[in-house]
Amino acid sequence: MLSLTSRLSRLVGEAFQAEGLDPDLGLVRVSDRPDLAPFQCNGALAAAKAAKKNPRAIAEAVKARLEAAGELSDVTLAGPGFLNLTPSDSFLEAMTSELKEDPNAGAWQREKTEKVVLDYGGPNVAKPLHVGHLRSAIIGQSLKGIMRAAGDEVLGDIHLGDWGLQMGQLIVELKHREPGLVYFDESVTSGYPEESPVTVADLAEIYPAASAACKESEGRMAEAQAATAELQSGRPGYRALWQHFVDVSREALEGDYAALGVQFELWRGEASVDPLIEPMVESLQKKSLLEDSDGARVVTVARETDKKDIPPLLVIKSNGSVGYGSTDLATLLERQQDGFDRCIYVVDKRQSEHFVQVFRAAARLGLFSEDAMEHAGFGTMNGKDGRPFKTREGGVLRLSDLISMVTEKALERVRESDSAPEGEAMSKEEIARMVGIAALKFADLSNPRTTDYIFDLDRFVSFEGKTGPYLQYAAVRMASVLRKAGTGPEEAIKAPIGLSEPSEKELATLLLGFADAHRSAYEKRMPHILCEHVFGVAQSFSKYYSNCRISDEEDNSVRASRLALTALTLGQVRAILTQLGIEIPKHM
Ligand code: ARG
Protein backbone atom coordinates (compact mmCIF):
# COMPACT_ATOMS: atom_id res chain seq x y z
CA MET A 1 0.00 0.00 0.00
CA LEU A 2 1.00 3.65 -0.12
CA SER A 3 3.05 4.70 2.85
CA LEU A 4 2.04 7.55 5.09
CA THR A 5 4.80 9.75 3.65
CA SER A 6 3.59 9.08 0.09
CA ARG A 7 0.06 9.97 1.10
CA LEU A 8 1.26 13.15 2.79
CA SER A 9 3.46 14.00 -0.18
CA ARG A 10 0.42 13.78 -2.40
CA LEU A 11 -1.48 16.09 -0.08
CA VAL A 12 1.29 18.64 0.15
CA GLY A 13 1.97 18.31 -3.58
CA GLU A 14 -1.62 19.30 -4.26
CA ALA A 15 -1.18 22.39 -2.12
CA PHE A 16 1.98 23.26 -4.05
CA GLN A 17 0.16 22.81 -7.31
CA ALA A 18 -2.71 25.01 -6.19
CA GLU A 19 -0.09 27.69 -5.59
CA GLY A 20 1.14 27.25 -9.15
CA LEU A 21 4.26 25.38 -8.00
CA ASP A 22 5.77 22.04 -9.00
CA PRO A 23 3.80 19.38 -7.05
CA ASP A 24 6.87 17.10 -6.89
CA LEU A 25 8.45 19.63 -4.53
CA GLY A 26 5.82 18.74 -1.95
CA LEU A 27 7.85 15.69 -0.99
CA VAL A 28 7.31 14.75 2.65
CA ARG A 29 9.73 12.74 4.71
CA VAL A 30 10.16 11.55 8.24
CA SER A 31 11.35 14.50 10.29
CA ASP A 32 14.94 14.90 11.54
CA ARG A 33 13.37 16.66 14.51
CA PRO A 34 10.70 14.27 15.77
CA ASP A 35 10.45 16.46 18.88
CA LEU A 36 8.89 19.17 16.69
CA ALA A 37 6.72 17.05 14.38
CA PRO A 38 6.82 13.55 12.93
CA PHE A 39 7.10 14.74 9.30
CA GLN A 40 8.60 17.58 7.33
CA CYS A 41 8.65 19.09 3.87
CA ASN A 42 11.51 21.28 2.67
CA GLY A 43 10.20 21.91 -0.83
CA ALA A 44 9.32 25.57 -0.33
CA LEU A 45 13.00 26.46 -0.63
CA ALA A 46 13.44 24.93 -4.06
CA ALA A 47 10.03 26.22 -5.15
CA ALA A 48 11.02 29.74 -4.09
CA LYS A 49 14.20 29.55 -6.10
CA ALA A 50 12.31 28.41 -9.20
CA ALA A 51 9.54 31.01 -8.79
CA LYS A 52 11.96 33.72 -7.59
CA LYS A 53 9.84 34.30 -4.51
CA ASN A 54 10.41 34.38 -0.79
CA PRO A 55 10.48 30.82 0.62
CA ARG A 56 8.69 31.79 3.83
CA ALA A 57 5.90 33.39 1.85
CA ILE A 58 5.48 30.21 -0.18
CA ALA A 59 5.56 28.08 2.95
CA GLU A 60 2.92 30.33 4.53
CA ALA A 61 0.62 29.95 1.53
CA VAL A 62 1.05 26.16 1.48
CA LYS A 63 0.46 26.03 5.23
CA ALA A 64 -2.83 27.89 4.85
CA ARG A 65 -4.03 25.44 2.21
CA LEU A 66 -2.97 22.43 4.28
CA GLU A 67 -4.77 23.74 7.33
CA ALA A 68 -7.93 24.12 5.27
CA ALA A 69 -7.63 20.53 3.95
CA GLY A 70 -7.97 19.11 7.45
CA GLU A 71 -5.81 15.96 7.30
CA LEU A 72 -3.13 17.61 9.38
CA SER A 73 -3.66 18.62 12.96
CA ASP A 74 -0.65 20.87 13.05
CA VAL A 75 1.42 22.70 10.44
CA THR A 76 4.24 24.97 11.58
CA LEU A 77 6.95 26.91 9.85
CA ALA A 78 10.56 26.70 10.83
CA GLY A 79 13.78 28.33 9.64
CA PRO A 80 13.82 29.80 6.14
CA GLY A 81 10.69 27.88 5.03
CA PHE A 82 10.61 24.36 6.36
CA LEU A 83 7.18 22.89 7.04
CA ASN A 84 6.68 20.68 10.08
CA LEU A 85 3.69 18.41 9.69
CA THR A 86 1.61 16.44 12.17
CA PRO A 87 -1.14 14.24 10.73
CA SER A 88 -4.49 14.48 12.50
CA ASP A 89 -5.64 11.55 14.61
CA SER A 90 -8.52 10.86 12.26
CA PHE A 91 -6.18 10.75 9.25
CA LEU A 92 -3.81 8.43 11.09
CA GLU A 93 -6.72 6.24 12.12
CA ALA A 94 -8.10 6.10 8.59
CA MET A 95 -4.73 5.01 7.27
CA THR A 96 -4.33 2.49 10.07
CA SER A 97 -7.64 0.91 9.21
CA GLU A 98 -6.54 0.74 5.57
CA LEU A 99 -3.40 -1.01 6.77
CA LYS A 100 -5.51 -3.56 8.61
CA GLU A 101 -7.18 -4.48 5.33
CA ASP A 102 -3.95 -4.74 3.40
CA PRO A 103 -3.15 -8.38 2.61
CA ASN A 104 0.53 -7.39 2.29
CA ALA A 105 0.82 -5.93 5.79
CA GLY A 106 1.73 -2.53 4.37
CA ALA A 107 4.47 -3.67 2.01
CA TRP A 108 5.30 -1.65 -1.08
CA GLN A 109 3.92 -2.89 -4.38
CA ARG A 110 5.58 -2.26 -7.73
CA GLU A 111 3.37 -0.97 -10.46
CA LYS A 112 5.19 -2.87 -13.17
CA THR A 113 6.68 -6.14 -12.00
CA GLU A 114 9.46 -8.17 -13.57
CA LYS A 115 10.60 -11.74 -13.99
CA VAL A 116 13.91 -11.91 -12.21
CA VAL A 117 16.58 -14.54 -11.75
CA LEU A 118 18.58 -14.18 -8.57
CA ASP A 119 21.91 -15.95 -8.73
CA TYR A 120 23.06 -16.77 -5.21
CA GLY A 121 24.68 -19.53 -3.20
CA GLY A 122 27.21 -20.42 -5.88
CA PRO A 123 28.94 -23.30 -4.05
CA ASN A 124 31.56 -25.27 -5.97
CA VAL A 125 31.32 -29.02 -6.34
CA ALA A 126 33.86 -30.76 -4.10
CA LYS A 127 35.43 -27.51 -2.91
CA PRO A 128 34.73 -26.41 0.63
CA LEU A 129 32.28 -23.60 1.23
CA HIS A 130 33.62 -20.30 2.51
CA VAL A 131 31.93 -17.38 4.22
CA GLY A 132 31.26 -15.77 0.87
CA HIS A 133 28.99 -18.66 -0.02
CA LEU A 134 27.22 -18.33 3.31
CA ARG A 135 26.63 -14.61 2.90
CA SER A 136 25.49 -15.07 -0.68
CA ALA A 137 22.88 -17.62 0.43
CA ILE A 138 21.56 -15.48 3.26
CA ILE A 139 21.45 -12.21 1.32
CA GLY A 140 20.10 -13.88 -1.82
CA GLN A 141 17.29 -15.56 0.07
CA SER A 142 16.26 -12.28 1.67
CA LEU A 143 16.43 -10.30 -1.58
CA LYS A 144 14.17 -12.93 -3.06
CA GLY A 145 11.69 -12.37 -0.24
CA ILE A 146 11.89 -8.59 -0.59
CA MET A 147 11.38 -8.68 -4.35
CA ARG A 148 8.58 -11.22 -4.27
CA ALA A 149 6.74 -9.15 -1.67
CA ALA A 150 6.91 -6.21 -4.09
CA GLY A 151 5.25 -8.34 -6.76
CA ASP A 152 8.13 -9.59 -8.90
CA GLU A 153 8.32 -13.15 -10.07
CA VAL A 154 11.70 -14.25 -8.72
CA LEU A 155 13.53 -17.53 -9.16
CA GLY A 156 16.64 -18.36 -7.17
CA ASP A 157 19.37 -20.20 -9.05
CA ILE A 158 22.20 -21.82 -7.10
CA HIS A 159 24.54 -21.74 -10.10
CA LEU A 160 26.75 -24.63 -8.98
CA GLY A 161 30.43 -24.32 -9.77
CA ASP A 162 30.75 -27.68 -11.51
CA TRP A 163 32.62 -27.12 -14.75
CA GLY A 164 35.93 -25.59 -13.84
CA LEU A 165 39.47 -26.72 -13.32
CA GLN A 166 38.68 -28.33 -9.97
CA MET A 167 36.81 -31.06 -11.82
CA GLY A 168 39.89 -31.94 -13.84
CA GLN A 169 42.01 -31.78 -10.71
CA LEU A 170 39.73 -34.26 -8.97
CA ILE A 171 39.66 -36.62 -11.92
CA VAL A 172 43.43 -36.67 -12.16
CA GLU A 173 43.91 -37.11 -8.42
CA LEU A 174 41.57 -40.09 -8.43
CA LYS A 175 43.31 -41.50 -11.47
CA HIS A 176 46.60 -41.44 -9.61
CA ARG A 177 45.07 -43.13 -6.61
CA GLU A 178 42.94 -45.71 -8.34
CA PRO A 179 44.07 -46.08 -11.95
CA GLY A 180 42.12 -49.32 -12.28
CA LEU A 181 38.71 -47.63 -12.06
CA VAL A 182 36.60 -48.23 -15.15
CA TYR A 183 36.17 -44.48 -15.71
CA PHE A 184 39.78 -44.22 -16.83
CA ASP A 185 39.61 -47.11 -19.30
CA GLU A 186 39.28 -45.48 -22.70
CA SER A 187 37.99 -48.68 -24.30
CA VAL A 188 34.84 -48.44 -22.17
CA THR A 189 32.31 -45.84 -23.31
CA SER A 190 29.10 -46.77 -21.52
CA GLY A 191 27.52 -48.90 -18.81
CA TYR A 192 29.34 -47.34 -15.85
CA PRO A 193 28.39 -48.38 -12.31
CA GLU A 194 25.46 -46.57 -10.69
CA GLU A 195 27.21 -46.41 -7.36
CA SER A 196 29.59 -43.49 -6.85
CA PRO A 197 33.21 -44.49 -6.27
CA VAL A 198 33.53 -41.60 -3.79
CA THR A 199 31.45 -40.18 -0.96
CA VAL A 200 31.19 -36.51 -0.13
CA ALA A 201 33.58 -37.13 2.77
CA ASP A 202 36.08 -38.61 0.31
CA LEU A 203 35.77 -35.50 -1.84
CA ALA A 204 36.51 -33.31 1.15
CA GLU A 205 39.80 -35.15 1.49
CA ILE A 206 40.59 -35.64 -2.22
CA TYR A 207 40.09 -32.03 -3.30
CA PRO A 208 42.69 -30.41 -1.04
CA ALA A 209 45.17 -33.11 -2.02
CA ALA A 210 44.39 -32.58 -5.69
CA SER A 211 44.75 -28.84 -5.42
CA ALA A 212 48.01 -29.09 -3.46
CA ALA A 213 49.46 -31.51 -6.01
CA CYS A 214 48.69 -29.05 -8.81
CA LYS A 215 50.33 -26.24 -6.91
CA GLU A 216 53.44 -28.32 -6.37
CA SER A 217 53.88 -29.70 -9.82
CA GLU A 218 53.47 -28.07 -13.20
CA GLY A 219 53.14 -31.48 -14.77
CA ARG A 220 50.20 -32.30 -12.55
CA MET A 221 48.60 -28.97 -13.33
CA ALA A 222 48.94 -29.59 -17.05
CA GLU A 223 47.33 -33.00 -16.57
CA ALA A 224 44.42 -31.42 -14.71
CA GLN A 225 43.95 -28.81 -17.42
CA ALA A 226 43.97 -31.48 -20.11
CA ALA A 227 41.47 -33.57 -18.12
CA THR A 228 39.20 -30.53 -17.75
CA ALA A 229 39.29 -29.97 -21.51
CA GLU A 230 38.59 -33.66 -22.15
CA LEU A 231 35.71 -33.67 -19.69
CA GLN A 232 34.22 -30.62 -21.37
CA SER A 233 34.59 -32.13 -24.81
CA GLY A 234 32.68 -35.16 -23.64
CA ARG A 235 34.99 -38.05 -22.77
CA PRO A 236 32.42 -40.61 -21.51
CA GLY A 237 34.33 -41.98 -18.53
CA TYR A 238 35.10 -38.50 -17.26
CA ARG A 239 31.52 -37.40 -17.72
CA ALA A 240 30.28 -40.40 -15.75
CA LEU A 241 32.74 -39.74 -12.96
CA TRP A 242 31.85 -36.03 -13.00
CA GLN A 243 28.18 -36.91 -12.60
CA HIS A 244 29.01 -38.87 -9.43
CA PHE A 245 30.97 -35.92 -8.02
CA VAL A 246 28.05 -33.62 -8.73
CA ASP A 247 25.44 -35.99 -7.33
CA VAL A 248 27.15 -36.65 -4.01
CA SER A 249 27.99 -32.97 -3.55
CA ARG A 250 24.50 -31.89 -4.39
CA GLU A 251 22.95 -34.25 -1.89
CA ALA A 252 25.11 -32.83 0.89
CA LEU A 253 24.42 -29.25 -0.23
CA GLU A 254 20.68 -29.81 -0.26
CA GLY A 255 20.85 -30.85 3.37
CA ASP A 256 23.03 -27.88 4.32
CA TYR A 257 20.86 -25.28 2.63
CA ALA A 258 17.66 -26.80 3.97
CA ALA A 259 19.10 -26.55 7.49
CA LEU A 260 19.89 -22.91 6.82
CA GLY A 261 16.38 -22.25 5.54
CA VAL A 262 17.61 -21.26 2.10
CA GLN A 263 15.79 -22.51 -0.99
CA PHE A 264 16.57 -22.55 -4.67
CA GLU A 265 14.03 -22.95 -7.43
CA LEU A 266 16.72 -23.75 -9.96
CA TRP A 267 19.62 -26.10 -9.33
CA ARG A 268 21.49 -25.29 -12.47
CA GLY A 269 25.19 -24.96 -12.77
CA GLU A 270 28.04 -23.98 -15.03
CA ALA A 271 27.89 -27.35 -16.76
CA SER A 272 24.22 -27.07 -17.61
CA VAL A 273 24.97 -24.36 -20.15
CA ASP A 274 27.65 -26.41 -21.87
CA PRO A 275 25.38 -27.10 -24.87
CA LEU A 276 24.96 -23.34 -25.28
CA ILE A 277 28.67 -22.63 -25.58
CA GLU A 278 28.81 -23.57 -29.24
CA PRO A 279 25.87 -21.46 -30.42
CA MET A 280 27.17 -18.63 -28.24
CA VAL A 281 30.60 -18.78 -29.85
CA GLU A 282 28.95 -18.82 -33.27
CA SER A 283 26.93 -15.72 -32.60
CA LEU A 284 29.98 -13.99 -31.11
CA GLN A 285 31.76 -14.83 -34.33
CA LYS A 286 28.90 -13.65 -36.49
CA LYS A 287 29.01 -10.31 -34.75
CA SER A 288 32.81 -10.23 -35.12
CA LEU A 289 33.25 -9.95 -31.38
CA LEU A 290 35.75 -12.77 -30.95
CA GLU A 291 39.40 -11.92 -31.12
CA ASP A 292 42.50 -14.03 -31.01
CA SER A 293 44.87 -13.61 -28.08
CA ASP A 294 47.84 -16.00 -27.92
CA GLY A 295 45.71 -18.86 -29.16
CA ALA A 296 42.83 -18.05 -26.85
CA ARG A 297 39.55 -16.46 -27.97
CA VAL A 298 38.49 -13.32 -26.15
CA VAL A 299 35.94 -10.49 -26.25
CA THR A 300 37.23 -6.96 -25.71
CA VAL A 301 35.24 -5.06 -23.10
CA ALA A 302 37.50 -2.12 -22.15
CA ARG A 303 36.18 1.42 -22.54
CA GLU A 304 37.88 4.75 -22.87
CA THR A 305 36.10 6.01 -19.81
CA ASP A 306 37.41 3.20 -17.57
CA LYS A 307 39.50 4.35 -14.66
CA LYS A 308 41.43 1.12 -14.63
CA ASP A 309 42.18 -1.46 -17.28
CA ILE A 310 39.44 -4.02 -17.78
CA PRO A 311 41.00 -7.06 -19.43
CA PRO A 312 39.09 -8.84 -22.19
CA LEU A 313 36.69 -11.66 -21.32
CA LEU A 314 38.31 -15.04 -21.91
CA VAL A 315 35.86 -17.20 -23.86
CA ILE A 316 37.91 -20.18 -25.05
CA LYS A 317 41.27 -21.01 -23.53
CA SER A 318 44.13 -22.00 -25.79
CA ASN A 319 43.63 -25.69 -24.95
CA GLY A 320 39.99 -25.46 -26.01
CA SER A 321 38.48 -25.51 -22.53
CA VAL A 322 36.03 -22.97 -21.13
CA GLY A 323 36.15 -21.17 -17.81
CA TYR A 324 34.19 -19.00 -15.42
CA GLY A 325 33.71 -16.14 -17.89
CA SER A 326 32.43 -18.35 -20.71
CA THR A 327 29.96 -20.26 -18.56
CA ASP A 328 28.62 -17.04 -17.09
CA LEU A 329 28.15 -15.55 -20.55
CA ALA A 330 26.41 -18.70 -21.78
CA THR A 331 24.21 -18.64 -18.68
CA LEU A 332 23.07 -15.15 -19.66
CA LEU A 333 22.14 -16.55 -23.06
CA GLU A 334 20.11 -19.23 -21.29
CA ARG A 335 18.48 -16.66 -19.02
CA GLN A 336 17.55 -14.54 -21.99
CA GLN A 337 16.02 -17.58 -23.68
CA ASP A 338 14.09 -18.30 -20.49
CA GLY A 339 12.51 -14.86 -20.74
CA PHE A 340 13.96 -13.19 -17.66
CA ASP A 341 13.78 -9.40 -17.58
CA ARG A 342 16.57 -9.02 -15.05
CA CYS A 343 19.53 -10.98 -13.69
CA ILE A 344 20.96 -10.22 -10.27
CA TYR A 345 24.15 -11.78 -8.96
CA VAL A 346 24.68 -11.94 -5.22
CA VAL A 347 28.41 -12.56 -5.19
CA ASP A 348 31.42 -11.33 -3.19
CA LYS A 349 32.23 -7.78 -4.24
CA ARG A 350 35.79 -8.80 -5.02
CA GLN A 351 34.42 -10.43 -8.17
CA SER A 352 33.21 -7.11 -9.53
CA GLU A 353 35.66 -7.01 -12.44
CA HIS A 354 34.49 -10.43 -13.59
CA PHE A 355 30.91 -9.19 -13.70
CA VAL A 356 31.87 -6.02 -15.54
CA GLN A 357 33.51 -8.23 -18.18
CA VAL A 358 30.60 -10.63 -18.44
CA PHE A 359 27.88 -7.95 -18.47
CA ARG A 360 29.64 -5.87 -21.10
CA ALA A 361 30.23 -8.90 -23.29
CA ALA A 362 26.57 -9.89 -22.89
CA ALA A 363 25.45 -6.39 -23.83
CA ARG A 364 27.70 -6.44 -26.90
CA LEU A 365 26.14 -9.76 -27.82
CA GLY A 366 22.71 -8.19 -27.43
CA LEU A 367 21.50 -10.50 -24.66
CA PHE A 368 20.44 -7.93 -22.07
CA SER A 369 20.80 -4.21 -21.73
CA GLU A 370 23.47 -3.35 -19.20
CA ASP A 371 21.04 -2.03 -16.63
CA ALA A 372 19.19 -5.37 -16.59
CA MET A 373 22.24 -7.16 -15.18
CA GLU A 374 23.35 -6.33 -11.66
CA HIS A 375 26.13 -7.44 -9.42
CA ALA A 376 24.87 -7.08 -5.85
CA GLY A 377 28.29 -7.49 -4.24
CA PHE A 378 28.94 -7.97 -0.54
CA GLY A 379 31.76 -7.64 1.97
CA THR A 380 33.32 -10.32 4.14
CA MET A 381 32.30 -11.81 7.44
CA ASN A 382 35.55 -11.69 9.36
CA GLY A 383 36.75 -13.45 12.47
CA LYS A 384 37.98 -11.43 15.43
CA ASP A 385 41.44 -11.53 13.84
CA GLY A 386 40.07 -9.44 10.97
CA ARG A 387 40.49 -12.27 8.47
CA PRO A 388 37.65 -14.14 6.71
CA PHE A 389 35.87 -16.23 9.32
CA LYS A 390 36.64 -19.95 9.47
CA THR A 391 35.34 -22.78 11.61
CA ARG A 392 37.22 -25.88 12.80
CA GLU A 393 40.39 -24.47 14.31
CA GLY A 394 41.03 -22.17 11.41
CA GLY A 395 40.22 -24.83 8.86
CA VAL A 396 37.60 -24.75 6.16
CA LEU A 397 34.08 -23.59 6.77
CA ARG A 398 31.59 -26.37 7.11
CA LEU A 399 28.07 -25.10 7.09
CA SER A 400 26.97 -27.91 9.35
CA ASP A 401 29.69 -26.98 11.90
CA LEU A 402 28.62 -23.37 11.80
CA ILE A 403 24.98 -24.28 12.29
CA SER A 404 25.81 -26.55 15.25
CA MET A 405 27.89 -23.76 16.72
CA VAL A 406 25.11 -21.18 16.61
CA THR A 407 22.50 -23.73 17.70
CA GLU A 408 24.59 -24.75 20.73
CA LYS A 409 24.98 -21.14 21.77
CA ALA A 410 21.30 -20.47 21.23
CA LEU A 411 20.44 -23.50 23.33
CA GLU A 412 22.32 -21.98 26.28
CA ARG A 413 20.23 -18.83 25.95
CA VAL A 414 16.98 -20.71 25.46
CA ARG A 415 17.67 -22.77 28.59
CA GLU A 416 18.37 -19.60 30.59
CA SER A 417 15.14 -17.95 29.46
CA ASP A 418 13.12 -21.05 30.34
CA SER A 419 9.77 -20.02 28.94
CA ALA A 420 6.74 -22.10 29.68
CA PRO A 421 4.85 -22.90 26.51
CA GLU A 422 1.26 -21.70 26.49
CA GLY A 423 0.18 -23.44 23.36
CA GLU A 424 1.66 -26.31 21.49
CA ALA A 425 5.11 -26.96 22.93
CA MET A 426 8.26 -26.97 20.85
CA SER A 427 11.35 -28.75 22.10
CA LYS A 428 14.17 -26.54 23.34
CA GLU A 429 16.36 -28.00 20.61
CA GLU A 430 13.89 -27.01 17.93
CA ILE A 431 13.64 -23.49 19.35
CA ALA A 432 17.41 -23.25 19.60
CA ARG A 433 17.76 -24.22 15.96
CA MET A 434 15.38 -21.43 14.89
CA VAL A 435 17.01 -18.93 17.22
CA GLY A 436 20.53 -19.85 16.12
CA ILE A 437 19.74 -19.52 12.42
CA ALA A 438 17.89 -16.25 13.03
CA ALA A 439 20.90 -14.95 14.95
CA LEU A 440 23.22 -15.77 12.09
CA LYS A 441 20.96 -14.41 9.37
CA PHE A 442 19.97 -11.20 11.10
CA ALA A 443 23.55 -10.44 12.07
CA ASP A 444 24.46 -10.74 8.44
CA LEU A 445 21.49 -8.87 6.99
CA SER A 446 21.49 -6.00 9.45
CA ASN A 447 24.84 -4.76 8.16
CA PRO A 448 24.85 -2.83 4.89
CA ARG A 449 25.45 -5.49 2.25
CA THR A 450 28.71 -4.02 0.99
CA THR A 451 30.48 -3.69 4.34
CA ASP A 452 32.61 -6.22 6.18
CA TYR A 453 31.55 -7.27 9.67
CA ILE A 454 32.87 -9.36 12.52
CA PHE A 455 31.52 -12.72 13.56
CA ASP A 456 30.61 -12.33 17.23
CA LEU A 457 28.48 -15.25 18.32
CA ASP A 458 27.66 -13.97 21.80
CA ARG A 459 26.29 -10.75 20.41
CA PHE A 460 24.42 -12.46 17.56
CA VAL A 461 22.44 -14.75 19.85
CA SER A 462 21.70 -12.16 22.52
CA PHE A 463 18.03 -11.64 23.24
CA GLU A 464 18.73 -7.93 23.62
CA GLY A 465 19.88 -5.35 21.11
CA LYS A 466 19.54 -5.38 17.37
CA THR A 467 19.52 -9.15 16.94
CA GLY A 468 17.45 -11.86 15.31
CA PRO A 469 16.52 -13.44 18.65
CA TYR A 470 15.31 -10.07 19.98
CA LEU A 471 12.92 -9.79 17.04
CA GLN A 472 11.74 -13.35 17.38
CA TYR A 473 11.15 -12.70 21.04
CA ALA A 474 9.18 -9.55 20.26
CA ALA A 475 6.92 -11.49 17.88
CA VAL A 476 6.47 -14.31 20.39
CA ARG A 477 5.47 -11.76 23.00
CA MET A 478 2.91 -10.10 20.74
CA ALA A 479 1.35 -13.48 20.01
CA SER A 480 1.33 -14.27 23.70
CA VAL A 481 -0.39 -10.97 24.58
CA LEU A 482 -3.18 -11.95 22.20
CA ARG A 483 -3.35 -15.53 23.44
CA LYS A 484 -3.52 -14.45 27.05
CA ALA A 485 -6.39 -12.12 26.16
CA GLY A 486 -8.22 -15.13 24.79
CA THR A 487 -7.92 -14.13 21.15
CA GLY A 488 -5.67 -14.60 18.12
CA PRO A 489 -4.32 -12.32 15.39
CA GLU A 490 -7.08 -12.94 12.84
CA GLU A 491 -9.84 -12.31 15.37
CA ALA A 492 -8.21 -9.40 17.20
CA ILE A 493 -7.39 -7.40 14.09
CA LYS A 494 -11.07 -7.01 13.19
CA ALA A 495 -11.72 -4.42 15.92
CA PRO A 496 -11.56 -0.71 15.01
CA ILE A 497 -8.33 1.00 16.07
CA GLY A 498 -8.47 4.31 17.88
CA LEU A 499 -5.23 6.16 18.55
CA SER A 500 -5.16 8.35 21.60
CA GLU A 501 -1.94 7.69 23.51
CA PRO A 502 1.34 9.05 22.07
CA SER A 503 2.93 5.60 22.04
CA GLU A 504 -0.03 4.22 20.07
CA LYS A 505 0.33 6.97 17.51
CA GLU A 506 4.05 6.47 17.30
CA LEU A 507 3.66 2.75 16.69
CA ALA A 508 0.94 3.23 14.06
CA THR A 509 3.03 5.90 12.30
CA LEU A 510 5.97 3.55 12.17
CA LEU A 511 3.88 0.69 10.80
CA LEU A 512 2.66 3.04 8.08
CA GLY A 513 6.28 3.62 7.06
CA PHE A 514 6.86 0.00 6.09
CA ALA A 515 6.25 0.66 2.39
CA ASP A 516 9.01 3.30 2.39
CA ALA A 517 11.52 0.98 4.05
CA HIS A 518 10.52 -1.89 1.80
CA ARG A 519 10.82 0.22 -1.32
CA SER A 520 14.18 1.55 -0.34
CA ALA A 521 15.48 -1.93 0.57
CA TYR A 522 14.17 -3.15 -2.78
CA GLU A 523 15.62 -0.37 -4.89
CA LYS A 524 19.01 -0.45 -3.25
CA ARG A 525 19.03 -4.25 -2.86
CA MET A 526 19.83 -3.59 0.79
CA PRO A 527 18.08 -5.83 3.31
CA HIS A 528 19.54 -3.91 6.26
CA ILE A 529 17.04 -1.10 5.60
CA LEU A 530 14.24 -3.52 6.37
CA CYS A 531 16.15 -4.79 9.41
CA GLU A 532 16.27 -1.23 10.74
CA HIS A 533 12.56 -0.81 10.18
CA VAL A 534 11.52 -4.03 11.88
CA PHE A 535 13.83 -3.34 14.79
CA GLY A 536 12.26 0.10 15.17
CA VAL A 537 8.81 -1.46 15.15
CA ALA A 538 9.78 -3.98 17.82
CA GLN A 539 11.21 -1.24 20.02
CA SER A 540 8.17 0.93 19.52
CA PHE A 541 5.91 -1.98 20.42
CA SER A 542 7.86 -2.53 23.57
CA LYS A 543 7.33 1.11 24.54
CA TYR A 544 3.63 0.83 23.72
CA TYR A 545 3.41 -2.33 25.81
CA SER A 546 4.89 -0.66 28.85
CA ASN A 547 2.95 2.62 28.44
CA CYS A 548 -0.51 1.32 27.58
CA ARG A 549 -2.65 -1.27 29.26
CA ILE A 550 -3.61 -3.83 26.69
CA SER A 551 -5.33 -7.03 27.87
CA ASP A 552 -5.99 -5.59 31.33
CA GLU A 553 -7.54 -2.38 29.99
CA GLU A 554 -11.01 -1.97 31.47
CA ASP A 555 -12.72 -0.05 28.68
CA ASN A 556 -13.78 -2.79 26.26
CA SER A 557 -13.47 -0.82 23.05
CA VAL A 558 -10.04 0.55 24.02
CA ARG A 559 -8.96 -2.97 24.96
CA ALA A 560 -10.17 -4.32 21.61
CA SER A 561 -8.45 -1.46 19.79
CA ARG A 562 -5.15 -2.14 21.54
CA LEU A 563 -5.35 -5.84 20.85
CA ALA A 564 -6.00 -4.98 17.20
CA LEU A 565 -2.94 -2.75 17.11
CA THR A 566 -0.94 -5.61 18.64
CA ALA A 567 -2.23 -7.99 15.97
CA LEU A 568 -1.44 -5.45 13.26
CA THR A 569 2.11 -5.09 14.54
CA LEU A 570 2.55 -8.84 14.76
CA GLY A 571 1.33 -9.24 11.19
CA GLN A 572 3.87 -6.77 9.91
CA VAL A 573 6.77 -8.19 11.93
CA ARG A 574 5.90 -11.65 10.63
CA ALA A 575 5.74 -10.42 7.05
CA ILE A 576 9.13 -8.77 7.35
CA LEU A 577 10.84 -11.68 9.06
CA THR A 578 9.44 -13.93 6.35
CA GLN A 579 10.93 -11.65 3.70
CA LEU A 580 14.26 -11.87 5.49
CA GLY A 581 14.06 -15.66 5.73
CA ILE A 582 13.69 -15.78 9.53
CA GLU A 583 11.29 -18.17 11.28
CA ILE A 584 9.43 -17.38 14.48
CA PRO A 585 9.24 -20.03 17.20
CA LYS A 586 5.94 -20.70 18.98
CA HIS A 587 7.50 -19.76 22.28
CA MET A 588 10.99 -19.02 23.58
N1 ARG B 1 31.11 -20.49 -7.75
C1 ARG B 1 31.50 -19.13 -7.64
C2 ARG B 1 32.49 -18.95 -6.50
O1 ARG B 1 32.62 -19.81 -5.67
C3 ARG B 1 30.33 -18.23 -7.39
C4 ARG B 1 29.31 -18.25 -8.48
C5 ARG B 1 28.55 -16.98 -8.55
N2 ARG B 1 27.62 -16.93 -9.64
C6 ARG B 1 27.93 -16.69 -10.90
N3 ARG B 1 27.02 -16.75 -11.79
N4 ARG B 1 29.17 -16.42 -11.24
O2 ARG B 1 33.15 -17.93 -6.44
Automatic annotation (TrEMBL):
Localization per record: Cytoplasm
Any single Gene Ontology cellular-component annotation: cytoplasm
Keywords: Aminoacyl-tRNA synthetase, ATP-binding, Cytoplasm, Ligase, Nucleotide-binding, Protein biosynthesis
Residue positions of motif 'HIGH' region: 123-133
Superkingdom of origin organism: Bacteria
Pfam families: Arg_tRNA_synt_N, DALR_1, tRNA-synt_1d
Assigned EC number: 6.1.1.19
Catalytic class of the enzyme: ligase
Domain spans labelled DALR anticodon binding: 471-588
InterPro entries assigned: aa-tRNA-synth_I_CS (IPR001412), Arg-tRNA-ligase (IPR001278), Arg-tRNA-synth_N (IPR005148), Arg-tRNA-synth_N_sf (IPR036695), ArgRS_core (IPR035684), DALR_anticod-bd (IPR008909), Rossmann-like_a/b/a_fold (IPR014729), tRNAsynth_Ia_anticodon-bd (IPR009080)
Coiled coil segments of this chain: none
BP-aspect Gene Ontology terms: arginyl-tRNA aminoacylation
Catalysed reaction equations from the record: tRNA(Arg) + L-arginine + ATP = L-arginyl-tRNA(Arg) + AMP + diphosphate
Domain Arginyl tRNA synthetase N-terminal, first and last residues per copy: 2-87
PROSITE patterns named among the record's database cross-references: AA_TRNA_LIGASE_I (PS00178)
Single Gene Ontology MF annotation: ATP binding
Subunit structure: Monomer.
Family: Belongs to the class-I aminoacyl-tRNA synthetase family.
Name of the protein this chain belongs to: Arginine--tRNA ligase
Organism: Parvularcula mediterranea
Gene name tied to this protein: argS
